[in-house]
Design a protein that fits this description.
Layout lengths: L1 H19 L4 E5 L6 E7 L2 E4 L10 E2 L5 H7 L2 E2 L1 H5 L6 E2 L3 H13 L12 E6 L8 H7 L7 E6 L6 E9 L2 E8 L4 E8 L9 E2 L1
Antiparallel strand pairs: 1-2, 2-3, 4-5, 6-12, 7-8, 9-10, 10-11
Length: about 200
């Protein structure tokens, strides 16, 4: 009986220690440009702890200023985000980000740096959404309508794409909700540009 009680106590101690243990931290180097990113094991998965800053087609610096890319990372349209992560890493799907959000809610002492990079939105000259504005910027918009880019919420909001598409031209993303103090899921246009956090394969 004593052995049984000791075994149960040991299991409880190990579980409690694991739940309160500090995340295992590390770094990874992007072979494409030599940038080094901080990483951490959160909820059993290895995540980047910094916003991705890899220049690919369909990515932007907030207000086209390099200093914003250096501090907050780049903003990516959804299609650009799908292939933006370094080799061996990828864009997390909505289930994986949901797992992360739940894990962070249960471990509030663990800091997941939001790096609030804001967003970039794309409208045509009449402030009407243009589903094809990404391609239109390179081939010209029929009728000569000028494409206008609008950046907002730098330092205020952090939006992160997931790799999951919701419907045509719309995909799932996560945003930090100040009221509930946790990340929540939403759906929006794929041509909006948000931040990216990669997860290890």
């Amino acid at each position: 009986m004593k052995e049984y009680v000791f075994a149960v106590a040991l299991v409880l101690f190990v579980c409690a220690s694991s739940a309160g243990a500090a995340p295992k931290k590390g770094t990874m180097k992007d072979s494409r440009d030599g940038r080094v990113y901080k990483t951490a094991v959160l909820g059993g998965r290895t995540w980047m702890m910094e916003n991705l800053n890899a220049e690919v087609k369909g990515s932007y610096c907030y207000e086209n200023l390099n200093k914003n890319c250096k501090r907050y990372g780049r903003l990516y349209t959804w299609k650009a985000a799908l292939s933006a992560c370094p080799k061996g890493w990828r864009l997390p799907d909505r289930e994986e980000f949901a797992e992360l959000a739940d894990w962070l809610a249960q471990n509030p002492s663990v800091a997941f740096d939001t790096l609030r990079g804001g967003e970039r939105v794309c409208f045509n000259g009449k402030n009407v959404w243009n589903d094809y504005c990404e391609s239109a910027t390179s081939i010209g918009v029929p009728g000569g309508t000028a494409i206008q880019f609008d950046y907002s919420e730098l330092g205020e909001k952090s939006y992160f794409w997931t790799g999951s598409e919701a419907m045509a031209y719309n995909a799932y993303f996560y945003v930090y909700d100040e009221d509930s103090k946790k990340y929540v899921e939403n759906i929006f246009k794929e041509n909006f540009a948000y931040s990216v956090r990669c997860i290890k394969n």
